[in-house]
Design brief:
CATH superfamily: SoxY domain
Largest sheet: 5 strands, antiparallel
Number of helices: 1
Number of strands: 9
Oligomer: single chain
Strand content: 35-45%
Strand order of the largest sheet: 4-3-6-7-9
Shape: globular
Radius of gyration: 15 Å
CATH architecture: Sandwich
Length: about 140
């Protein structure tokens, strides 16, 4: 069970990222096809493999979060060669499914920030749609 304090933090973070993505009028006209962002559950190690690739090679810094867990995973790091893979161990699989555990990513791209949100999925499942947004 998620503590009330953690639930409020997760709710605020999810609403903030979603608001930025929804209210950004440029996101509809921006091509994000150079980005690959995926989060796959690894059942054998009870972990999530998160991958990011920027084929334009303009990404330099990342803020990665997995929300909806007892303790939110949060990591900030530099990106080298515009790609990374992170293996994040889980305490347990979410009781109400992966939709309650969004993965968000903020990337410093060239001179602005790109926001991404996706869901964790199993190896044999189709990857969910990635929602994109960007700063001015």
């Amino acid at each position: 069970m998620i503590a009330p304090k953690n639930f409020i933090i997760i709710l605020i973070a999810t609403i903030s990222v979603s608001t930025v993505i929804i209210l950004d009028p440029l996101s509809e006209n921006t091509d994000f096809s150079n980005f690959t962002f995926d989060a796959v559950y690894q059942k054998d190690s009870n972990s999530v493999s998160i991958t990011f690739i920027d084929t334009n090679k303009k990404s330099s810094f990342a803020v990665l979060e997995i929300l909806g867990m007892e303790n939110t995973f949060h990591e900030e790091f530099e990106i080298y060669d515009s790609k990374f893979t992170k293996l994040v161990p889980l305490d347990k699989v979410p009781k109400y499914g992966w939709k309650t555990t969004p993965v968000t990513l903020e990337i410093t791209y060239d001179e602005y920030v790109v926001y991404m949100k996706t869901e964790i999925h199993g190896k044999d499942q189709i990857a969910p749609v990635v929602i994109f947004g960007k700063s001015d």
